Amino acid sequence: MTTHLIEGLAVEVEGDGPAIVCVHGLGGTSNTWTPLLPALRGRRIVRIDLPGSGRSASIAGELSIGSMADAVEAVCRHLDVTAAVFLGHSMGTIVCQHVATRNPSLVTGLALFGPLLCPPDAGRPGILARADKSATGGIAALQEIADAIVAAATSRETRETRPAVLALVRESVMRQTPHGYAQSCAALAGAQAAPIDQIKVPTLLVTGDQDGVAPPAAVDAMAGRIEGSRMVVLAGCGHWTPFEKPLECARELDQFLRPAN
Fold first, then answer.
1. How many domains would you assign to the chain?
2. Residue 78 in contact with residue 97, Cβ under 8 Å?
3. What CATH number is given to the structural domain containing 36?
4. Structural domain of 61
5. How far, in Å, CA of 198 to CA of 201, rounded?
6. Residue of 249, 240, 90 lying closest to 166 (CA atoms)
7. How far apart are CA 124 and CA 111, in angstroms?
8. pTM higher than 0.90 for the full model?
9. Taking CA 200 as the corner, what is the angle to CA 195 and CA 201, rounded to the nearest 5 degrees?
10. Residues in the chain with pLDDT values less than 70
11. Are 95 and 64 within 8 A, CB to CB?
12. Which of 13, 56, 94, 222 could form a cystine bridge with 9, CB 3.0-4.6 A?
């Protein structure tokens, strides 16, 4: 594995073969995808820390889903990736949808975990309040946010029986800088839906039966708009699908990618 710094972004690249580009969600990093790496063998895996997330530098001014998509496409150009399957989690699924609809020749398939079109209008003020809390409260506020996410965005089974997964989620959020996390929250709060009816590539949609961010009913509605897509609901799973159900996610991903191998 080689770590690159591309236009301020930390990017991990490993393997050879057809490209697969991995885009994490809010509070995530390239390590969101570590549990799924066994399913990606035989491919060139590109894992990006989005602007202001993980080890990547923040940008000057406001961050948006559009600028995140710009950054992902810039990484692809730098690495000579002209066609790839895109993996996304949570906010990263919105980024992937925008890339797929505005640059369709780049995207040969989509595997989206905890997918959403954009936040519901009723949820946007809460995301903005989280941005303000992180921006003004520093590390102490980010710790409170991380603890709240662990309590609200994981399944009951995960909270009761898998303390290591809770630690992973908490550490992922705490790995952010308060300023970078606030920028990402503001970007998510302002996100608009991509025209997903235009997506014509194989698409896998995976959510948890206890995912309050990407509830099964909403994901089913997405599946109805993406021609030929397949939806999977994982039992006993919240929103952090790759951490909470790594074996099940890897199995679905392996099945999804196999026809293209």
1. 1
2. no
3. 3.40.50.1820
4. 2-260
5. 9
6. 240
7. 25
8. yes
9. 120
10. 1, 259-261
11. no
12. 56
